[in-house]
Amino acid sequence: MDKGWIGIWSPGIGDPTIGGWLTVVLYAWAAWMSFRVLKQERRQRLVMSANEISVWRVLLLGMVALGINKQLDLQSALTEMARILALEQGWYGDRRRYQEAFIVAVPVVGLTALAAMALLVWKAPAPTLWACTGATGLLVFVAIRATSFHGVDEMLGWHLAGLPLNWVLEMGSLVVIGWSARKRDWVRT
Q1: Which of 38, 18, 31, 98 is nearest to 64 (CA)?
Q2: Whole-prediction pTM value?
Q3: pLDDT (average), residues 88-99
Q4: Which of 47, 56, 176, 187 gets the most CB atoms within 10 Å of its CB?
Q5: How far apart are CA 32 and CA 143, in angstroms?
């Protein structure tokens, strides 16, 4: 029986572990570093194209939104809404086919997003290109994680160098974004 706000979902702390809170801190750090890049551009200490400014704005907003989502577990609310819709419309029994198609489409969308961002900022300094790469990795990770496909959940529980693979993927992408922003803050063009 559904007892949450949306089906079985209710707002709460989604990942109260040390890893969960460390990830939130990394989202905040990446957002802060992206903000610093934009602040330096506004002070005319960095020269950036309108496209590059747009990319850093999207990164800033994305880091803030995903950091909030990390602990409120809002993607689980979306997953629960999809489950309810699938049950009501009668395609819940066939959901694996849709999940698998989604998982296959995610890398294609991720690579397309990377290509689009790279085209927008092709002549930007390398740190901006690296930030786009980190953002693409994060986008793919978040999209795959949102599918709640059992096999993918198991894979994300694997360990690499003693750390859960989901930590390596999410935190690694955040470190790339934050470090790239820090480097871009230092690169004067």
Answers
A1: 31
A2: 0.82
A3: 86
A4: 56
A5: 23
